[in-house]
Amino acid sequence: VGQQFNAFGYDRIDILAQSKDSRTLLVIELKKGKGTDETVGQLLRYMGYMNTIKEEGQVVRGMIIAHEANEQIQHALSMVPNVEFYAYKLNFSLTKLS
Q1: I need a labelling partner for 96 at 20 to 30 A (CA). Which of 2, 32, 62, 78 fits?
Q2: Could you give phi then psi for residue 95, rounded to 5 degrees?
Q3: CA-to-CA distance for 82 and 69, rounded, in angstroms?
Q4: What's the rounded Cα separation, in Å, for the pair 82 and 44?
Q5: Residues 20, 73, 45, 8: what is their CA dihedral angle, to the nearest 10 degrees?
Q6: pLDDT score, position 38
Q7: Cα distances (Å, whole numbers) of residue 36 to 21, 46, 66
């Protein structure tokens, strides 16, 4: 299960996923460009919110998905063991059929 989730009544978590065994909540922040250290702060805010409403025994983890990472985000992420960063790559081509 993964979907956009309202947090704080005014903010939206891009994707909130729950593991099949319901033990892990995964907060996913999507960025179309570079991930920055500000993105880490945003994600930690969302994770902190989920930590206050999670069920007993659940853990909250975070994931940032962006096109690339700058040096600042890499330093910030090195101090946050429960957050992962993934870079996406797009490949687009057109083929004329007629």
Answers
A1: 32
A2: -130, 125
A3: 17
A4: 10
A5: -90
A6: 94
A7: 32, 16, 9
